[in-house]
Design a protein that fits this description.
CATH class of the largest domain: Mainly Alpha
Strand order of the largest sheet: 1-2
CATH topology of the largest domain: Annexin V, domain 1
Shape: globular
CATH superfamily of the largest domain: Flagellar motor switch protein FliG, alpha-alpha superhelical domain
CATH architecture of the largest domain: Orthogonal Bundle
Number of strands: 2
Structural class: mainly alpha
Distance between the termini: 67 Å
Radius of gyration: 26 Å
Number of domains: 3
Length: 345
């Protein structure tokens, strides 16, 4: 028999879940200081900073929030396999004992999951002035590696006080990076007076390149960014153009306000816009079409509906063409593009 329900009783509301950082901060606050410190030692700089902020924010957590944090921990712990605890050390020990150190090194270098070298992680803990000093005094190739490892806004601040010629050279070299060989990592380790990571070979790190440099450039003051781009064009025009394209991609149209976005789209061919929007999500489609008249938006939707399979290359070309219009309109002052702040428009 089904129990009767009092329809007049207030509905029970589900408690909103705590964010991951807040829950983790509460759990750390419940531990002894030494235990919490031991956990933090295994995290990188950004994670420690985020948790430190969350620990301050949750210092006055309610009893209910503490219970939620504990419940989340218990629920998530059920999915953690006991095999994962200390797996790296155990696997390496077994392989070493089975085939010897030399063969084990060769096997593990090819199959083991790779992590960043300790020297790369150390850079994330350094203050901006110390990083600037390294960039100014070391070989530009080492400097480019340093620049590529940093968080974009830190890299932008570190490069800001350097000589103009060195700025351009570092950005150029960083943009040309693809994969970094072990020898380059070793040079950086020597610069930082860091010990070799467990004596293991260091795999190539996929860092740098135009995308990473574009993120750094977006964090720079407008005047410095424009000057650096001009200097880059003298050395490598194609690379400079690629960086400019990466600094503001099609998805960044979401960041434009309705007025600026509408100004842009009124200058774009309807067929071209339909192809460009075919490669994005519905939210982006709605965002763009909301700035247009009802008739114009219906025309675009009809064109998109009639399309079947659209090649990715055609979508990319359409989006690049639209972004070229955006850059031209921004340069002429017709629209304003927000960057990392009011300093970049």
């Amino acid at each position: 028999m089904v129990d009767e329900v009092d329809m007049d009783a207030p509905a029970l509301k589900a408690k909103p879940g705590l964010e991951g950082a807040s829950a983790a901060a509460i759990l750390l606050m419940l531990l002894e200081e030494e235990e919490a410190a031991t956990i933090l030692k295994h995290l990188d700089a950004d994670e420690v900073r985020q948790l430190a902020k969350s620990m301050f924010d949750t210092a006055n957590a309610s009893e209910g929030q503490i219970e939620q944090a504990l419940d989340q921990f218990v629920n998530q712990s059920r999915g953690v396999s006991a095999l994962a605890v200390g797996a790296d050390v155990r696997i390496r020990t077994v392989i070493n004992q089975a085939v010897g150190n030399v063969r084990a090194d060769n096997i593990l270098a090819a199959v083991a999951p790779q992590s960043s070298a300790a020297s790369l992680e150390m850079l994330r803990w350094m203050d901006v002035d110390a990083i600037s000093a390294l960039l100014a005094n070391e070989h530009p190739q080492v400097g480019a590696l340093i620049l590529s490892v940093l968080i974009p806004d830190v890299a932008a601040r570190a490069i800001e006080i350097l000589d103009e010629t060195l700025q351009a050279e570092l950005v150029l070299r960083a943009a040309q990076l693809t994969a970094v060989p072990a020898a380059a990592i070793e040079d950086l380790e020597a610069v930082l007076a860091s010990a070799n990571v467990g004596g293991q070979r260091v795999a190539k790190q996929a860092i740098g390149g135009p995308s990473d440099v574009a993120k750094i450039m977006k964090k720079m003051p407008k005047q410095l960014s424009e000057r650096t781009i001009r200097a880059l064009k003298k050395s490598d025009k194609i690379l400079a153009q690629t960086i400019e394209e990466e600094m503001f991609i099609f998805e960044n149209l979401r960041d434009l306000d309705a007025k600026n976005l509408g100004t842009v789209l009124r200058s774009v061919d309807a067929a071209q816009l339909a192809i460009a929007l075919k490669g994005t999500d519905e939210d982006m489609v709605d965002r763009c079409l909301a700035t247009m008249s009802k008739r114009a938006s219906e025309t675009i939707r009809d064109e998109m509906a009639e399309m079947t399979m659209v090649k990715r290359v055609d979508v990319d070309e359409a989006q690049k063409a639209i972004m070229q219009i955006v850059r031209q309109m921004a340069a002429s002052g017709e629209i304003m593009i927000a960057g990392a702040g009011d300093d970049y428009v």
